[in-house]
Please model this.
Amino acid sequence: MASSPAALGKTPGRSSVSTEPSAAVMGTYGRQNIVFARGEGCWLFAENGDRYLDFGSGVAVNALGHAHPALVAALKAQADKLWHTSNLYRVEGQETVAEKLTRLTFAERVFFCNSGAEACEGAIKVARRYHYVSGHPERQRIITFRGAFHGRTLATLAAAGNEKYLEGFAPEAGGFDHVDAGDLAALEAAISPETAAIMLEPIQGEGGVRAFSPEDLRAIRDLCDKHGSLLVLDEVQTGVGRTGKLFAHEWADITPDVMAVAKGLGGGFPVGAILATAEAAKGMTPGTHGSTFGGNPLAMAVAATVLDIVSEPEFLEGVRTKALHLKQGLSGLKDQHADVVEEVRGAGLLTGLKLKAHVSPQQLVAAAMDEKLLLVGAGDNCVRVLPPLIASDKDIAEAMQILSRALSRVAREVG
Ligand SMILES: *Cc1c(COP(=O)(O)O)cnc(C)c1O
Model:
């Protein structure tokens, strides 16, 4: 039986949802058996009244935490006016958000979509189309990096080339060449007259919080310029303040030609965007791309508010200060739990603990959850620590205490 939304969260201790997950939901996730009813700031409240410190942020999405008053107000105000008109007409909110994004970044053109995968797939289309209209239709191939994650559509799966995610979905979309991150010689060797673009996440998120060094990013930018390829950045996870700059590539003092953004942009409302220079976007003329829902007025109202808050220099400065405390806390935990933790990784509030080989990320995520702290697993035997950007120093200190208990628990389990 479906429970009425009004009942949720108002009857702590009295569960109105089934104790078992419904088989009617396609079983594509190994979900934790918990239903959250309400959120506030960094905290989530389960249906039974239990309170969890959310240091997963819905996988780097809830940049401003849960139920941020400004976001709630923006969504409610827009909901009273207009939900959807389609892209057959001008959408005021799109023009507002696109102007903000072009003012704040390298970009001169923005296309709105609904998710990270769509933004990545669209970025690939922009890159191919650029060469096509430049008289080089043969430049179709995109070089990507092993360990990448660009989404779950057929093209973005092929882009990342992760065999586990591709299994059973043949034929694999063509046009992608994969190289090892950090191997610049292999990268240059992979560039051919058919290379349209090099595409990468400045920090691989799902792949295990593995960062490209600023030097490598600058070298890759130079390689693109030398060979006439476009640089496509996937900042779906690293963007919108997550690393303490509005976008992670700013740390390396480079700019891409095309960039995919999503996750934090809507603070929990689904929205994605493709950003590009005017030159890179020159082929994106009427009829070349589209989306029924992309840039819907509700999404735009929320995204405009997120950007106004996150792009404030003091806000980003605050993220960098908090990030320092988080990094210090995690480094302390690594020293304290050297039998479990191998390495602290990441930048800003996109951090991860790489665990020793005899410990699995699932074990630590489960132990932390038992202690009422939410974390997110990742590849390369990593657990991600992704607090909302609004987390206070007190929240971070509390998370470190809980995480210490969880690590002790894991050490006992495996010891
Ligand atoms: C999450 C993610 C995606 C996919 O986003 P969806 O909204 O799940 O489609 C793509 N790239 C990166 C770097 C991501 O972290």
Observations:
- The longest helix spans residues 313-336.
- Residues 115-117, 120, 149-151, 201, 205-206, 234, 236-237, 262-263 surround pyridoxal-5'-phosphate (CB under 6 Å).
- The chain is about 35% helix and 20% strand.
- Residues 364 and 410 are 6 Å apart (CA to CA).
